[in-house]
Amino acid sequence: MNFTPPPTEDGFGAEKLFNQGYSYTYDDVIFLPHYIDFPTDAVQLDTRLSRNIPLSIPCVASPMDTVSESHMAVAMAALGGIAIIHSNTTPFGHAAMIRSAKSRRVPILSNPIFSSPSGRIASIDDFGDSQCILVTESGSVKSKLLGYVSKSDLMKLSDKEVKIYDYMVNSSVSAPCSSNLSEIGAFLEGKSRDFVPLVRDDEVVDVVTKEEVERIKGYPTLVAGSIGADGEWLIEMIKYVKKMYPELDVIGGNVVTVNQAANLIQAGVDGLRVGMGSGSICTTQEVCAVGRGQATAVYKVSSIASKSGVPVIADGGISYSGHIVKALVLGASTVMMGSFLAGSTEAPGAYSYLNGQRIKKYRGMGSLEAMTKGSDARYLGDTAKLKIAQGVVGAVADKGSVLKFRTYTMQAVKQGFQDLGASSLQSAHDLLRSRELRLEVRTGAAQVEGAVHGLVSYEKKSF
């Protein structure tokens, strides 16, 4: 039986919706579901921070002095994202934090394969991402490491019934878990192996690959900008840096308009940071009456940046996984988060208690407290005798480690992409620009209806 769809359309294409003269936030808009023909696990979130810097997940920790220092940078890198270390310190202090982050890593032994010496190669069904089989006395992780067999060696064997022990490299080809990346790199140099197990008390705690060591060395990035980024001094600085250091990726911002973006693209930026006054601790829109709703800003800037192959960072306004989905689908390649990561174990600062709740300080870089330490240059107030605050100082609840909650957040983002029928960021952008993906504006009542409502009490556990 043939079915003819009704002549009326659901929702609006993004171009029509965002050209009505309104400034929309993420909460103002909602996507309509689209046809699904793939599972959630098929969604790929790999992306680019800038022209030449790839990321496994589209998450960036904001360069704020209560969010991103070396501990956050190491954790975000371990997850496949990145942290931009704040510069609200001396140049020497800034360099020290970067060196510290570059020299360390979070031990992550993902999907390890263990075997006892008597195990047979035929018993190994799937290597997954593992580089080797780790051979321990009992065949478990909490046991003395005897050696390992590389994946490449085992794949060459035709007789799968031989014992793993017969092809094992002994445990002397390992390194102490206290080794830094420079020491591990020196250990691997000249070796025929592309990895080395790290041990503590004869037990394996991690495996580091040559690829990982090389990746840590690279990807130099400069984030240059101010809250009002369409200025002569910034454009001249971008041109100078690109001329003197052409191998360096330069991210410019913050911008919220097409004209601002065009000027920085013309100057040679490799990425654009989008957002003005949308952060939870930012008061720029109130104090200066200048800014733009973040959903509109991301869509408008991404529309022009995509034509030049310049990735967009949606900076600010992220409170939930749904906001991440909206930012990415509207054209961003990554989302930059402050409050979302503040309060985590890896964020700078000590914990304190307020009314029995464990909290950490979180402050805007436009707050007077932060500006007195040096961030006033970002708000073009470093030469002004009278400084005007464009941010506040507050506190956020303890969130635990980003290594835990970030994984669940990314799974929620994948489910959002699946509901939209987009298996990747690029497919989401294509659906949006082709007008296949439809949007609507939510009324205040619709926003209330879309949240938890009508209950006397409830417990909200995201994972």
TrEMBL record:
What does the entry list as the binding residues for K(+)? 277, 279, 282
State the Pfam families in the record: IMPDH
Tell me a GO cellular component.
Answer: cytoplasm
Tell me the SUPFAM superfamilies matching this sequence: CBS-domain pair, Inosine monophosphate dehydrogenase (IMPDH)
Q: Which InterPro entries match?
A: Aldolase_TIM (IPR013785), CBS_dom_sf (IPR046342), IMP_DH (IPR005990), IMP_DH/GMP_Rdtase_CS (IPR015875), IMP_DH_GMPRt (IPR001093)
Q: Which reaction is recorded as catalysed by this protein?
A: IMP + NAD(+) + H2O = XMP + NADH + H(+)
Q: Which GO terms describe its biological process?
A: GMP biosynthetic process; GTP biosynthetic process
Fetch the PROSITE patterns from UniProt: IMP_DH_GMP_RED
Q: Where does the IMP dehydrogenase/GMP reductase domain lie?
A: 24-453
**Which amino acids does the record list as binding NAD(+)?**
275-277
- Provide this UniProt record's keywords sorted from A to Z: CBS domain, GMP biosynthesis, NAD, Oxidoreductase, Potassium, Purine biosynthesis
User: Can you provide one Gene Ontology molecular function annotated for this UniProt record?
Assistant: IMP dehydrogenase activity
> Which protein family is named in the record?
Belongs to the IMPDH/GMPR family.
Q: Which PANTHER family match?
A: INOSINE-5'-MONOPHOSPHATE DEHYDROGENASE (PTHR11911:SF111), INOSINE-5-MONOPHOSPHATE DEHYDROGENASE RELATED (PTHR11911)
Q: What is the protein name stated in its UniProt record? A: Inosine-5'-monophosphate dehydrogenase
